[in-house]
Amino acid sequence: MYERFANANKQAGEKMWRLPLDDEYKETLKSNIADMVNAGRPLGRRHLRRHVPKRIRRRHPWIHLDIAGTAWMEEAKPWIAKGPSGIALRSLVEFVKGWES
């Protein structure tokens, strides 16, 4: 599933990267200032999996896109307007179009 999304992302020309969330990273995510502290939930893949019901996870692959921090631009930049950014929309469109083939 990730490979399909990565290909769609490349086709769309948007910049994203895969965040490793295996248990081996649990200790490196501990911080007094990290977003994980602010989330107030368990770390790692288990944290994200809790948002996807077990009955769905068993039958369907899934991807979590963490786009909240980039969803709104406070000021205009040469490459993007102020306001809603539409981040990941082009990638998602390419991803869905890929289901046809």
Describe it for me?
The protein is mostly helical and 101 residues long. The chain has helices at residues 2-12, 35-39, 45-49, 54-59, 89-97; strands at 72-73, 83-84. It is built from 5 helices and 2 strands, in the order ααααββα. It has a two-stranded antiparallel ribbon with strand order 1-2. The longest helix has 11 residues, at 2-12.
Q: What is this structure, in a nutshell?
A:
36% of the residues lie in helices and 4% in strands. The protein has 101 residues and is mostly helical.
Detail the poorly predicted runs.
Answer: 40-44
| Cα end-to-end separation | 15 Å
Shape: globular
Mean pLDDT: 77
Q: List the strand order in the largest sheet.
A: 1-2
As for the number of domains, it is 2
What are the salient characteristics of this protein?
2 strands, 4% strand, 2 domains, mainly alpha, 101 residues
Write the layout of secondary structure elements.
Layout (H helix, E strand, L loop, with lengths): L1 H11 L22 H5 L5 H5 L4 H6 L12 E2 L9 E2 L4 H9 L4
Antiparallel strand pairs: 1-2
Helix pairs in contact: 1-5
